Amino acid sequence: MVLLLSATWFFFWLLLPATLFTSVIFRFNGLSAFYCLYLITLPYSPRLRGLYMRSWRRYCFVTLVFSGMFVLAHAAFQVALAVKKPYGSLLGPPCSFAERTARYVGFQRLDSTSVANICRLIVPDVATFIVSVITMILINKSEAYLLTHEDQQTNAKTTQQLKNEVSREKAMNGFVLFLTVILLAVAGIAYPSVISSIYLLSFITLSMMWAFHKPLLTPAVALMRAFLCAIASFQLLMLYLYQIQHIQDLIPKESIYTRLFGLTPIIYTNCTTPNTLLLYPGLKWTVYVGPASIFLLLWSMAVGVRMFFRDYWALAKQLNDDLPVLSSGSKRTPNSERRVVLVNEDDHTAVNQPLVQGEELPQNYDSMAPAVVNGEHNGETAEGQEIVEQPNNSGLLHSIEGQISKLKHFSFYVVALIIMMVWSVTYHSWLTFVLLIWSCGLWMTKERSWYTLCCSPVFTIYGIAILLIQFIYSLDLNESELPTTINQTDGNILYLSAFGMRRYAYPCLPLGAQVFYLCGFWLVLHQFNYIRRHRSGSDNESTTSTWAHKFADFCKEMLSRYWIFLVIGFHIAIATEGYPTGIKFIYFFLFVLNITAFIVSWQLYRKTLTLYWFVLLSYTMVVLIVIYTYQFQSFPNYWKQLTKFDDKQLADLGLTQYTNEGQLLLSVMLPALFLLVVILQLHYFNERFLEVTGPSNQTPSPGSDGNDHSVELENEEYEMNELHRGTCEREEKENWFQRKCRKMCPVIVSAAKTVASLFIRGLEFHVWRLVFITVFCAAAYKVSAIYGVYVIFWICLLPARITHRALYVITIITVSMIILGNMFFQLQFISPELKYNCTFNSYGNMKVIEYEMLNWIGIFKMNQNGAYFNHVNVCVLVVWLYVLYGVIGPLCPSPI
Q: Rounded to two decimals, what is the model's pTM?
């Protein structure tokens, strides 16, 4: 019987819809329009149960009857055409009124038609009839068994089984609703039109409801989905009927109505070959994605509406009717009554729960311990009365929400601030420039976490406004219908693209990116409303040390120690990429000051490090804002009037307008990413870095015996605490994965420390040799007077141990000055000529050779299209090795 039920489900839910779908997409006429209507109504059919088999049987019976009638009509039509000689004279010539009418209905003459087209026109009806017959037979055989079996199961069901079933239905409804919300966004932006705007607005509405903790599994939302089902069905039918040539002739594709409502012609008919399926050339892939997304959205919404009203709602009512009788033997408190009864006839608060369920009591974001209210845990009442717990089976979405709610506050506000910066960089306009200034201002505030959460409603609404403006300009309208430029009275032209009002070749891509950004805003807004509701629940801190906390602390400790190397590398990269400019010159000058302080005095370096990060952060913000605003149309003229510079001098400063979108994105993205890296260093890692590197916090080197002993003591203490707490209690709270992670974390941490120790030991012995070899290789690679001075200095000062410190300082300062001098020399307004002539006597022939004095010194002009890093890569390598030597050097043995 299991095989029979599986076959019935396969034929009804897979094979029959596949047959109908094939009939719809490969044939466009009235017969297939009927199949399209049936395909749209199919997801409303109930699931495989004996009580609902009559609905299945009626549906298959109607499909069987009509497909059989269509097969007979085809046969009769072909007989009528063959009776009257010659064949097809009954319809007249191709594209006549009678022939077109019969073709639109679904009946065509088959002479001069290929075998493939004959199969495309006739086989769908035959296949639908055969599949309907088989499905009908399977349904009749399955109905009797299901009715008998389900009656026995219904009589034997207990309250707990009904609760479990309701929980499963609720989880399935939540997952289907989550899928529907995603498909609403996809259908709304796939091919923008007036009708698709309804899907996008519905997506925004549901997302805002979730962000404000409003219930989504409610009859009102289900009715909204039913209304959207009607709209999607109507749109699919209109799209399908518009593929008929007669309707395309009545409403041309160039009409504003077809473009506004998204009626895109895909199929056209040629009178010479009316039975051939032809596609319009040059169609974009979004034309095909639009109908597919609407179809998937229709099915998900129809299944969700059917599941909510026929399955979940009915089971909840049945459980509510049984509860007074089944629970009469237990004492009920108001709290327990509220938590057990799922549906109340007078109050639907228990059913009206959010799509992603939140905790009934406040959850501490900084702790994984249960919240405590009035001195009591969430699991029991003050009087010790038992509370009937709802089974914890809320599905994937509840699990995701539970994991999200355990993250710390800064994780979400950092996400929002990063999204604001990325949005402003990827889509350059004055509207997104507001987001950039906004995020920079929030980064600079002291209580940035709370201020960002408080601003979340405002920038969420602002982001929605930007999305809707982009959606309006993504409609299929021409320049006269929706202009992107405005002629002003003074003769100038106002470009609306500067305000984000521009058209894209594929509008769904920028709309999809902006929807993704908005999802981050909604996440922050959801957390803000949760904190505002349960402010008291955020004061409880968990003192329990778990493997997750230990791993998080380990990661934070490693980032605090080594994130600074990423900042230094990024600093060198942003200062030496591309052609040198004034902006990059200042970047490298700041880097030279920092490195010089690092080499000269470690204490001086530590005292000035925070100030250095702040100056670098402020300068990068100014650079980002200046470069960002310079890309607008009128700003170059403002800069010329302000500075009296020409385009060449402004380019030397680093101000260039980019016409290529890729170059524009790169020019703004690099300082934005560097700004983010510096912000993370200053706000999250700098303080801990100073603590770790301070003289009062010196600890044994990683991997030493004392450290291993402390790890062993910590593990022993942890094991004793676990034994004291009880093995049974631990196993109840931890699953298999958590236990494995708890046991493996100390091993992984110890192994990582051992590898780091070995690596540092190797550098201790060889870093000096690397510096020595690199300096001499640089001198050999760049043969000039400056590098010759290096060789003289190293030969003279290296043998004396007392001069090593001075040698290192002189070398690093000289190399830095060479890099700065070469960078300054590359500016376009500097073009000195220090040439001299040398006369040689070669076998009695006098030769005069002209030499460039600057090249002899070691200063060269580079190619305009080259990268400055390739010009000074050896010097940069020397600087980087000196930085590494400054970190490892104090632990090194003497080089002699």
A: 0.78
